[in-house]
DNA sequence: GTCGAGCATAAGGTGAGCTTAATCTCGAAC
DNA sequence: GTTCGAGATTAAGCTCACCTTATGCTCGAC
């Protein structure tokens, strides 16, 4: 019988590309991962990996098996979720990931509702950029996460995660009437690698220019303070712009950001996940949207 | 992560009812099965079994998990079948089960076609009554089996097996124009526990009487010889009645028997299974139907 | 009451799977 | 060309999961 643990490693390899990265993700040594994948190949009776230069790549058979692995792991997730539901109401640790703005604005009221309704639940929150959420969910470091996606950024589709939409908010630009009007300005953006950074770059490119990025700042309060001090222009979402400094003028753009709850595919009926998403929804009316 | 091996044991327990029977089916000791199921309960965090008198029964949670186990094992089966397909054409050992008549009439030409088309295939045939096929498939003792079902016998539905119909044949009665006309006769039937025996009893009951069973004989040639010797009446399928003894008159009844190929759910795309079923089909025109 | 079937627990041996350490290869920097 | 580091594999050893044997317990049949 195929071993789901090995299938999990193969799936991680498909996503991460190197055995070393897989090993780090599951906190094994690369040696262990290599041995497990060799064993899987032996059982499969087909070459699944092939060395390409300094790293390994999946053969077509490997990719085929990854798809089946996904289906198997999803069913196992479903089974676990069903057991959790049978055990009773939501309880135990629940690892929640959230992008910084959500952690500041949405989570405090949501967690209050959540722990109020389910005293046995122990939510544990980590700030995390949406770009890293899929990997963290797969690795079991998170159970549910708040992520966002932008018009300009194709949603990161990962076969192993599923999402439920929560709300949509508009984007604002500081001190300029449109992105195109900020062609010559210095820009304040989030750190490279974050979804917000990618979005801002794409928005400028869509307006026909490459932005001149001067500052890399993740915290939107700081971003606005910089803008107020005349250090550049920035794109900020509604939630981050509730109390802007006096000196900053905000223009609403025809650009929106969607916030969603993400979780491992198959785990959507887990009572703790359901309770968390319900709590997120109860917190929405309290948001300054 | 839930262990499919343990889930398999739980599923077997649901079908067989006792830990001892499961142990025998998987050739473990009862102790090992007991330990594995205890471990599964611990991981599940719910009672799955409860002692009822001298044996154990599944709790509602246990039954729920069995359904999920079925889905998981099916996906694993699918993955294995996909790997077998990727490995290339059908090859290796293929365990075939067949009821006696099929083994005598259908298998010889079918196996000739099969091994002719796929020299790497090593078919291994075991005679087996259709009533025992599901268990043998689940246990991995068989990969594909020829089974039959009768009008009077509800098909044995097992969530873990799947079937494809092959052909239908009529039933014949010896020396009497109808089952009802054989009310007072001595009957020659198959051994109790076989599907044919159950069918014959039901057919008599449907005609309004309990048959007087005198002989229990599985081989239809012998059955017909007994009938020819005036030792009783019998129901025989078309395939078993191609060259009846002179002294026996056969009457075709409005009663039919369907022959099907059975295999583990999820394994239907396994190349060896597909090749076997294809070979069964090529052999059908050679049958004296 | 006695006996056997069925299950659970204790104790022990074996193998799967992890770690560490060493080796090999590739690619980039100089 | 040489060096170096990243990535992968292999060897050797250790731990733990898991199966077996042995034993005991409980229930139901006779």
From TrEMBL, chains A, B:
CDD domains for the chain: HTH_ARSR, PBP2_LTTR_like_6
Stated name of the protein: DNA-binding transcriptional LysR family regulator
Keywords, comma-separated and alphabetical: DNA-binding, Transcription, Transcription regulation
One Pfam family from the record: HTH_1
Domain of life assignment: Bacteria
UniProt-listed Gene3D superfamilies: Periplasmic binding protein-like II, Winged helix-like DNA-binding domain superfamily/Winged helix DNA-binding domain
Database matches in PANTHER family: LYSR SUBSTRATE-BINDING, TRANSCRIPTIONAL DUAL REGULATOR HCAR-RELATED
Species for this entry: Nonomuraea fuscirosea
InterPro entries: ArsR-like_HTH, LysR_HTH_N, LysR_subst-bd, WH-like_DNA-bd_sf, WH_DNA-bd_sf
PROSITE patterns per the UniProt record, alphabetical: HTH_LYSR
Entry's Gene Ontology molecular function annotations: DNA binding; DNA-binding transcription factor activity
Family classification: Belongs to the LysR transcriptional regulatory family.
GO cellular component term of the entry, any: protein-DNA complex
Chain coiled-coil ranges: none
All copies of domain HTH lysR-type, residue ranges: 2-59
């Amino acid at each position: 019988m195929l071993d789901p643990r090995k299938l999990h490693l193969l799936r991680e390899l498909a996503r991460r590309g190197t055995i070393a990265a897989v090993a780090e993700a599951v906190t094994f040594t690369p040696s262990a991962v290599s041995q497990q994948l060799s064993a899987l190949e032996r059982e499969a009776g087909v070459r699944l990996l092939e060395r390409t230069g300094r790293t390994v790549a999946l053969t077509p058979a490997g990719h085929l098996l990854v798809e089946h692995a996904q289906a198997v792991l999803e069913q196992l997730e479903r089974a676990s979720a069903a057991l959790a539901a049978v055990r009773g109401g939501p309880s135990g640790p629940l690892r929640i990931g959230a992008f910084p703005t959500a952690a500041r604005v949405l989570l405090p009221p949501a967690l209050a509702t959540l722990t109020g309704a389910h005293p046995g639940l122990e939510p544990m929150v980590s700030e995390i950029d949406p770009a890293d959420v899929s990997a963290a969910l797969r690795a079991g470091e998170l159970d549910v996460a708040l992520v966002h996606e932008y018009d300009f950024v194709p949603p990161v589709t990962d076969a192993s995660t599923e999402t439920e939409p929560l709300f949509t908010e508009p984007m604002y630009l500081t001190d300029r009437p449109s992105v195109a009007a900020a062609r010559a300005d210095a820009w304040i953006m989030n750190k490279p690698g974050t979804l917000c950074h990618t979005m801002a770059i794409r928005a400028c490119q869509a307006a026909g220019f490459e932005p001149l990025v001067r500052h890399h700042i993740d915290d939107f309060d700081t971003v606005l303070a910089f803008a107020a001090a005349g250090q550049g222009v920035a794109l900020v979402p509604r939630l981050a712009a509730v109390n802007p400094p006096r000196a900053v003028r905000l223009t609403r753009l025809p650009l929106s950001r969607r916030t969603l709850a993400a979780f491992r595919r198959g785990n959507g009926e887990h009572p703790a996940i359901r309770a968390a998403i319900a709590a997120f929804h109860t917190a929405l009316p309290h948001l300054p949207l």
